[in-house]
Amino acid sequence: MGDITSFDDFHREFEKYRRDNRWMFRGQAKADWPVIPKAGRHPYCERNDLDYLESWTRRAAEFIGRVPENIWEAMALAQHHGLPTRLLDWTYNPLVAAFFACLDEHDSDGVIYCYMPEMQIVPGKMEPKNLKQVLKYRPNVIASRIGRQSGLFSVHPEPKVDLRETIGCTDQLTCHVVKSTYKRRMLFELNHYGVNRLTLFGDLDGLSGHMRWTLENRRYWSEHDEFMRELEGNVR
Questions:
Q1: What is the distance between the alpha carbons of residues 127 and 26, in angstroms, rounded to a whole number?
Q2: What global pTM score does this model have?
Q3: Domain locations along the chain
Q4: φ, ψ at 156 (rounded to 5°)
Q5: Most Cβ neighbours (<10 Å): which of 85, 100, 127, 168?
Q6: How confident is the model at residue 143, as a pLDDT?
Q7: Which residue has better confidence, 166 or 233?
Q8: Phi, psi at 6, each rounded to 5°
Q9: In the predicted model, is pLDDT for residue 198 greater than 80?
Q10: How many angstroms separate the first and last alpha carbons of the chain?
């Protein structure tokens, strides 16, 4: 698919996805990174993630107000708090995916994946250990960050296998590369439309991170033209 080197490119490439609200999006800061959940990466893949999820769920009762209603809710809550699981984060908002594609690794091309799985998880009728294909999972909003990021997940029965190698015959997957020369500039343009650490994380960490970024780039507002000339000169 077409590369993204400007906000006009982004709008043109993603306009087509507005025709079907089943599309979900994921941004990755390096285009050559595999599309796998954290449970499929080293060293976490050396153990079965469902085993340590069970242990986490038992011990988490001490810290949460209520017990998760099912294993899917427990998995989503664990994922939110940093436990490696077989869930992979996605969003219904392509602007959010673009933010994560541009946030880090500014010397490398980023990528935005666009995915439409045909089937989704039905809690109470499906168990993680019985899955045969990648499915979509829309959790209850168990954390404000998931709601702020229009978040949902794909569930991977084989966490170590790249999503690009397991696409079902009725699923759709495309991608768009965000060129490294545009990544830093795109963060400013996303911020103009209200997409930044503060709005996406909605907590003290997000506030502090957004203020750091603003301070580090304050010349963008006070000396805009000179700042952008220097930025564009540095990234070419």
A1: 25
A2: 0.90
A3: 7-195
A4: -115, 115
A5: 85
A6: 63
A7: 166
A8: -160, 165
A9: yes
A10: 22
* Spatial distance between the Cα atoms of 174 and 113, rounded to a whole number of angstroms: 6
Residue with tokens 């009762």: 61
CB 92 within 8 A of CB 21: yes
DSSP string, the chain: ---B-SHHHHHHHHGGGGG-TT-EEEEESSTTS----GGGSTTGGGS-HHHHHHHHHHHHTTTSSS--SSHHHHHHHHHHTT---SEEEEES-HHHHHHHHHSS-TTS-EEEEEEE-S-B--BTTB-GGG--S-EEE-----SHHHHHTTEEEEE-SSTTS-GGG---TT-EEEEEEE-HHHHHHHHHHHHHTT-SHHHHH-SHHHHHHHHHHHHHTTHHHHSHHHHHHHHHHHH-
Burial class from Cβ neighbours inside 10 Å (0-12, 13-18, 19+) for residue 234 reads exposed
C-alpha to C-alpha distance for 110 and 99, rounded to whole angstroms:
10
Q: Once rounded to an integer, what is the mean pLDDT over residues 165-174?
A: 84
pLDDT tens digits for 94-147? Answer: 999 999 999 999 999 999 999 999 899 998 899 999 999 999 999 875 666 677
pLDDT reported for residue 236: 53
Q: 178: burial class by Cβ within 10 Å (0-12, 13-18, 19+)?
A: buried
Residue 68 CB coordination number (10 Å): 19
